[in-house]
Amino acid sequence: MANANVNVDVKALGKVAVLMGGSSAERDISLMSGSGVLQALQSQGVDAQAFDPAERPLAELKSEGFKRCFIALHGRHGEDGTVQGALELMGIAYTGSGVMASAIAMDKVMTKRVWAAEGLPLPRQVVLRRQDCSPGRIAAAVAELGLPLIVKPPHEGSSLGMTKVEQASQMAAAVELAARHDAVVLCEEFIAGAELTCPVLGEGDAARALPVIRIVPPAAGYDYNNKYFTDEVKYLVPSGLEPALEAEVQGIVLRAYRALGCRGWGRADLMLRARDNKPFLLEMNTSPGMTGHSLVPMSARAAGMSYEQLCLHLLSQAALDGGARG
């Protein structure tokens, strides 16, 4: 775990752009995250300014003398390696994972191929292509995975386009909804149990897992609205897990993070199967939310790091893929 006492030479950080907004389906959440980060950095004396790539050409980052970027973008064109690649070309250091790790983590299908090769615990899955979602293929997915199951677009976050399918008659509509967001539809075995999330700070062998959070959603589920706009969801940190189980979850998350080549920070989501307390990885977020409802700040706070300290620490670790710091 990173030391909660963040000692950063604020002047040395230079002119900082907080990238927020963007053009993805998660634009509104990104604006909330970015506003929080911007306020936090400015409160610590950082020369930070908001920058919305949906409204300004990225080239202005270079021409206006920005020295580093805090990426508070979520979803496509922000979390998928594209902005990271542009910043690499301009030589402007940025927070979070590099081009390859960002691109892979954004694609849940590719992520799970990497994790499967590492022997990490995953729900069973079936991948359907939008142009070939025939009734026969949909029925075969149900037969293979059983019910209930989860249907989701593999390139979206914040539960967008996701459905828990309880009956076979709901499957076609669930696939159609996911296909509106993506050319590929991911059907996943439903793991009955507790929802967990675990953030990571750092890189390589120095990466450290923060405290695990157990998510207790209302009856309506942990959907987009409940994630960001209500107080119906309960977040337990400390998680209440036995210490050995918490350590096991953190160990799995660190292996998952390192396998993808992540750096800076990230957050893995998991399910803990109720019948045997076995953890299953769902996804890795390489540009996690930083809103008032977000989970990384919550976990960091439990480890003794304030929101402002967290933002400053992440910014101080901004880098390029070659390892050069800003």
From TrEMBL:
Cofactor(s) recorded in Swiss-Prot or TrEMBL: Mg(2+); Mn(2+)
Sorted UniProt keywords: ATP-binding, Cell shape, Cell wall biogenesis/degradation, Cytoplasm, Ligase, Nucleotide-binding, Peptidoglycan synthesis
Function noted in UniProt: Cell wall formation.
Family annotation (InterPro entries): ATP-grasp, ATP_grasp_subdomain_1, D-Ala_lig_Van_CS, D_ala_D_ala, Dala_Dala_lig_C, Dala_Dala_lig_N, PreATP-grasp_dom_sf
The family this protein is said to belong to: Belongs to the D-alanine--D-alanine ligase family.
Pfam families per UniProt: Dala_Dala_lig_C, Dala_Dala_lig_N
Gene Ontology molecular function: any one: D-alanine-D-alanine ligase activity
Pathway(s): Cell wall biogenesis; peptidoglycan biosynthesis
Reaction equation(s) it catalyzes: 2 D-alanine + ATP = D-alanyl-D-alanine + ADP + phosphate + H(+)
UniProt subcellular location: Cytoplasm
Coiled-coil intervals, chain numbering: none
UniProt lineage: Bacteria, Pseudomonadati, Pseudomonadota, Betaproteobacteria, Burkholderiales
Domain ATP-grasp, chain residue ranges per copy: 112-316
Source species of the chain: Azohydromonas lata
Full protein name: D-alanine--D-alanine ligase
EC number: 6.3.2.4
Primary location: cytoplasm
